[in-house]
Amino acid sequence: MDVELRHLRCLVAIVDEGTFTDAAIALGVSQAAVSRTLASLERSLGVRLLRRTSREVTPTATGLRVVAHARRVLGEVADLVREATSGHTSLRVGYAWSALGRHTAAFQRRWVQEHPGTDLRLVRVNTATAGLAEGSCDLAVVRRPLDDRRFDSAIVGLERRLAALSAEDDLAAHRSLRLADLAERTLLIDRRTGTTTPELWPPDARPATEEIHDVDDWLTVISAGRRVGMTAESTAYQYPRPGVVYVPVRDAEPVAVRLAWWRDDPHPATPAAIELLTALYRAG
Question: Which residue ranges form the domains of the chain, and what is each CATH number?
């Protein structure tokens, strides 16, 4: 027999109320129904969950663990119901490595002022869709095109490409660099979410590459002077790091910043988010 939510609600009610009678009142059912539901749950799990005497009901050691899990499950179900029935009172914006660079704080402030009825939350999810495909967000900030036809997107701005170097690197003192300056180095790249690939360089002058999948690891390796990186300028604003210097690469094409959403189920606030972000990037 499967464990059902009514089983978990019954168990938690008994523990919280202290007696079968009080649990029945809290649940709006008969005491006999509470007894049957608990017995059904214990049969399903094959364990005893409660000790019953004439004066009190207390959980067994196993019962305590099951009650803790039951509370978490019921809490998650309550969150699910609120999310599905809230009428889009919140907007989750996902991003992989960096959010919106120097525009992040302004976006948050302006959103609160202009859309007080929709709570804005930024969520970091290091996947190709920045959490969109995983259901972790309603909109996603991405910096390369999404090939998946389930999603639509709009370009809201452009960002310069910057080289990330150890402060001890000879190139760190330059005001700007060219792609050729990095061709002999080993470049750290994230093929899942990153904006940099060897294809930025001519076929006969491409740097060696090494895979990495986390921005903190990326920064740590670069600061040690073992590797170099290239990234959108938003990373420099969001992740300043002692020992790491960001230098503009003047002949590298800029990075397009896109806002992506589910094509067949866009969040109602999508046009407002596009408009605000486009205005922020246009203002510079």
Answer: 5-85 (1.10.10.10), 90-155+257-283 (3.40.190.10), 161-253 (3.40.190.10)
